[in-house]
Specification:
about 350 residues; mainly alpha; Rossmann fold; Tyrosyl-Transfer RNA Synthetase; two-stranded parallel sheet; 15 helices; 5 strands; elongated; binds adenosine-5'-triphosphate; binds magnesium ion
């Protein structure tokens, strides 16, 4: 069976380094590996509207930002179809049919949705569309018969939900849909990168992000004010590396070459950690190093992004073409789904 990727992001703002290590960096690697027959990258505007329905301008404006971030990190429209979710009504249609295969109780049990409901303070007023977004995500994944979904850890429950829907559909109707696998980063620190405030997840909604489009000065400022180990007060104090955000970021970003270039007195991250734990290593020094490591990776992204910013027509064309291509595939799957569900009334004799 050919390998197909579907993944995406909600256009609720610019993308940040959590998205980068959790999914974008891996996507670019997979794109360039040549192992995938098709790659679909979705800008999930319909999903973003489920909790931003009263702020459509935010979603509209963020489409450009996300597209620029994609091009900046090296996603290549020649190799990947980059498309806009709402422009493919086939996805909404699939959602309608999949809704019959899922209970409300099952949706309410989804731990990611649960914590998002809390974060958004919906309490008893959960928009039905928001509660159902995991079903819409199942449509997105299955419409492209995706085998592989490279995402961050918070998406695990969505993938489980999708697999359940696939199994149920195939069992009741016909074996049309493909069960996808989640592809998580093998680097533990990349699964759910914490925010600069040390909170569990870097998230657009929490305002604790380093954005891919931040200037060099902005990155430096954010790194300087980052959360470290609150018990590490004097340089001579022994420090903790666990739960210390600066070290988590180094885990996600630092390469041995970075040490040769920017901190040659250490061979690698293990040596640096050991010194911090022993005491005698100040936060200023590790933050300076982290800043250099981040710049090494972010500055080419920033430069590429700036180049594409000059050519909005290219971005519109890329999104149009990507959407057309994605729509063709989704329409084919929807036809198969309708046939399996016996609602393909006008494709032969009805009675
Ligand atoms: P929102 O607050 O609007 O939900 P978000 O920052 O959570 O935004 P999404 O668009 O929901 O971003 O997620 C896009 C992708 O990035 C998903 O694959 C998700 O798992 C991954 N991701 C998001 N935040 C992180 C993070 N902090 N660490 C690792 N991966 C992340
Ligand atoms: Mg999210």
């Amino acid at each position: 069976m050919e390998k197909i990727i579907l993944t995406g992001d909600r256009p609720t703002g610019k993308l940040h380094i959590g998205h980068y290590v959790g999914s974008l960096r891996e996507r670019v690697r997979l794109q360039n590996s040549g192992e995938y027959a098709k790659i679909f990258i979705m800008i999930a505007d319909a999903q973003a509207l489920t909790d931003n329905f009263d702020n459509p301008e935010k979603i509209r404006g963020s489409i450009r930002e996300v597209a620029l971030d994609y091009l900046g990190v090296g996603l290549d429209p020649k190799k990947a179809s980059i498309f806009i979710q709402s422009q493919i009504p086939e996805l909404t249609e699939l959602t309608m049919y999949y809704m019959n295969l899922v209970t409300v109780a099952r949706l309410q049990r989804n731990p990611t949705v649960k914590s998002e409901i809390q974060m958004r303070k919906f309490e008893a007023n959960i928009p039905a569309g928001f509660l159902c977004y995991p079903i819409s995500q199942a449509s997105d994944i299955t419409a492209f018969k995706a085998t592989t979904v490279p995402v961050g850890e918070d998406q695990k429950p969505m993938l489980e939900q999708t697999r359940e829907i696939v199994r149920k559909f195939n069992e009741i109707y016909a074996p049309v849909l493909v069960e996808p696998d989640i592809l998580l980063s093998s680097n533990k620190s990349c699964l759910r990168l914490p925010g600069t405030d040390g909170k569990a997840k870097m998230s657009k909604s929490l305002g604790n992000c380093i954005y891919l489009s931040d200037t060099e000065e902005e990155v430096a400022k954010k790194v300087k004010s980052m959360y470290t180990d609150p018990t590490h007060i004097k340089v001579s104090d022994p420090g903790n590396v666990e739960g210390n955000t600066v070290f988590t970021y180094l885990d996600a970003f630092a390469k041995d070459e970075d040490f040769k270039k920017y901190l040659p007195e250490y061979e690698n991250l293990d040596e640096l950690k050991a010194h911090y734990k022993r005491g005698g290593l100040g936060d200023v020094k590790i933050k300076k190093f982290l800043n250099a490591v981040l710049e090494e990776e972010l500055s080419p992204i920033r430069e590429r992004r700036k180049e594409y910013e000059k050519d909005p027509a290219f971005i519109v064309e890329m999104l149009k073409k990507g959407t057309e291509k994605a729509k063709e595939t989704a329409a084919k799957t929807l036809d198969e789904v309708k046939k399996a569900m016996r609602i393909d009334y006008f494709s032969g004799d009805l009675f």
